Amino acid sequence: MIEKSNISIVIADDHPMILKGLYDELLDNNYNVVGQATDGMQALEKILVHNPTLALLDIDMPILTGFDVIKMAKQKEVATKFIVLSFHKETEYISQARALQISGYLLKEDSFSEVEMCFQRVLKNETYFSRSFEATSLEIVSEDLRRMKNLTSSEKIILKLVSQQLSSSEIAEKLFISVRTVEKHRSNIIMKLDIDNTVSNALNTWAYEHRFIIKEL
Predict the structure, then answer these.
(1) Where are the domains of the chain?
(2) Residue 145: closest CA among 193, 190, 196
(3) Residues bearing 4-aspartylphosphate (predicted)?
(4) Using CA atoms, how far apart are residues 12 and 192, in angstroms rounded to an integer?
(5) What does each of the 217 residues of the chain score in pLDDT, given as a tens digit?
(6) Beta bridge partners of 35
């Protein structure tokens, strides 16, 4: 097991009291906090400078969200493992975390012992989601992702445009293809994603609800 003092950590939260509490807790438990940030841009800079073992990021931060920071840092191919620490339990946030292949997702209500459990799992290259999440929610999100990965590149493009609430004719005009071709793609997407097409505008509704994860395809 890695010595705690050898685990370098960057933490970011726009609430000073939460940031200080997390910092103090980590220091009291012998972790090496190499950087703190109160907005997303600061967090990204600290990560790129220090290349820490772990980064604990709030999702809702000024300038850049925690998800934005992770996406941009991953594009720079940093070795840091990312854990989000948030109040959000909604499926759309779980979906974004899954789509970005984030190592851990903790809730601010979790105890520090669970934070440490998350560290241990993540450092073993495992993924850890707070025990407060319902297992069914995680399974549904994982299944949605698996199905979306089976779409062709053309179908993914169509799905992204549907999630932006564009009509078939607007998509056809944008992609310089026929409306009939768009409708064929839509039909294939509905079948592959196992969407109930008996409901009016089922694909539009599904795509809008999953828009945050779709944009990461």
Answers:
(1) 4-132, 150-214
(2) 193
(3) 58
(4) 39
(5) 678 889 999 999 999 999 999 999 999 999 999 999 999 999 999 999 999 999 999 999 999 999 999 999 999 999 999 999 999 888 888 888 888 889 999 999 999 999 999 999 999 999 999 988 876 666 767 777 788 888 999 999 999 999 999 999 999 999 999 999 999 999 999 999 888 877 778 899 888 888 877 877 7
(6) 10
Give the span between the Cα atoms of 83 and 22, in whole angstroms: 13
Quickly name the fold that domain 150-214 has: Arc Repressor Mutant, subunit A (1.10.10)
Which residue's structure tokens are 């669970």?
114
